[in-house]
Specification:
five-stranded antiparallel β-sheet; alpha+beta; rod-shaped
Length: 182
């Protein structure tokens, strides 16, 4: 009978990979793939900024339509980090909030999003609201369907992510995508 020789430790390791080693490699590849997919999604688009753009354009379109249907003027008041749709009351001769309508109620921009408003080529300073002060809208939405022309720019602070919304005199809205010219 041939004599059995003892093999040195680690001599079988050259034959292949263990199941545990293969699983570790698969997990590493999966993690790297997930990170790559998420980073492309985060760096490629800003869904929060798109949501704010869509909310603003939907609000303005609805207010423009409602102004025509009701035969009264609406307006948009902009403050630092917020905006609100107001309606003109002829009976009281002033602009009033519409607290019963969630779409037109004051809307705060989320943290990290800022806006600038340009009217007639001049950027307006959106100052703080004063207590008991009568608010007048910077943008008017007339009952006849016209609007005062303006350009609103929404920006994600600290990035180059931005959207422009241009309100034209005929009441149409033009959305400028990132990287395109107005």
């Amino acid at each position: 009978m041939p004599a059995l020789r003892a093999r040195p430790a680690g001599a079988d390791r050259g034959r292949g990979f263990t199941l545990l080693e293969i699983l570790v490699v698969v997990v590493i590849i999966a993690v790297v793939t997930v990170i790559a997919v998420l980073s492309v999604g985060v760096l490629g688009t800003d869904h929060g900024l798109e949501t704010e753009r869509d909310r603003f354009t939907d609000t303005v379109a609805a207010a423009t339509e409602q102004a025509g249907l009701e035969g009264r003027d609406f307006g948009i008041w902009f403050g630092p980090g917020r905006y609100e749709v107001l309606a003109y009351s002829q009976r009281r001769d002033r602009w009033e909030s519409l607290p019963d309508d969630r779409l037109y109620a004051a809307h705060e921009l989320p943290a990290g999003v800022s806006m600038s408003l340009e009217i007639e080529g001049k950027t307006l300073l959106l100052g703080a609201e004063q207590a008991n002060a009568t608010r007048a809208p910077q943008v008017l939405l007339y009952a006849g369907g016209e609007t005062s022309p303006y350009r609103l720019t929404l920006v994600r602070d600290g990035t180059d992510h931005r959207f422009g919304v241009t309100g034209q005199a005929d009441g149409t809205l033009v959305v400028t995508q990132p990287g395109s010219s107005p």
